Amino acid sequence: MNNTKLIFFDFSELYKIFNELGHSLNYELINAQDIKKLDEEINKSKDYLVITKDSRIKLDNQIFLKDLPLKITKILERINITNLKNNYSKKSNIQVGNYKININSKEIFFKDKSLKLTEKEIKMIIYISNSSNPVSINELQGNIWGYSQDLETHTVETHIHRLRKKVLNNFRDKDFIISTQNGYQIIQKK
For residue range 9-50, what is the model confidence (pLDDT) as tens digits? Predict the structure, then answer.
């Protein structure tokens, strides 16, 4: 069973049909008859889809069914497609401190600003931010570029310098990637 809840808001008829299908579905089913119950269920879970026929409800994770009657297979198809899109979107956004990186668009965001990044820049940022210790030039050279540690090159330093300059010019953050005696670090600011 996946972790996504299907919350049927003010839609008891459809909830009963889905409940009868029960074990053949891959979702937890919730019947919410009022706003209080809806809010309660939404606050309990990160992964949910609200299915409603009420056009006044406006949520990000919502499927509004207005063209009724629909075949159950069509409703299930919409639920599955929406769920896949939501999961894809969640996996493509990575939080690095106060910044959000969208891997698909190759952009980094902070407040109302964004900056295009190269694939190598994204890989470097994610690799450095996932490390609890400073990351050495040799480690980046081997794990990001696939170069031998014996190879004499300034590829890492050049890329770090360019990335810092881009972040400074766009976000005014001079401490995005810091240098330590043991390598590079991204301090997770709160």
Answer: 999 999 999 998 877 778 889 999 999 999 998 888 878 899
Query: Is 111 found in the same domain as 89?
Result: no
Overall domain count for the chain: 2
Domain edge (last residue) among 93, 124, 156 = 93
pLDDT tops 60 at residue 1: no
> 108 in a domain, yes or no?
yes
Q: Which two tokens stand for residue 178?
A: 């810091």
190 located within any domain: no
Strands 5-9 and 48-52: parallel
The string of DSSP codes covering 47-112 is: SEEEEES-TT---SSEEE--S-S--HHHHHHHHHHHHHHHHHHHHHEEEETTEEEETTTTEEEETT
85-99 pLDDT, tens digit per residue, is 887 777 788 888 889
pTM: 0.57
Verify that 169 and 105 share a domain, yes or no: yes
**Bridge partner residues of 5 (DSSP):** 28, 48
Residue range of the domain that includes 82: 5-93
Burial, 37: exposed, middle or buried (Cβ in 10 Å; 0-12, 13-18, 19+)? middle
> Can you give the length of the chain in residues?
190
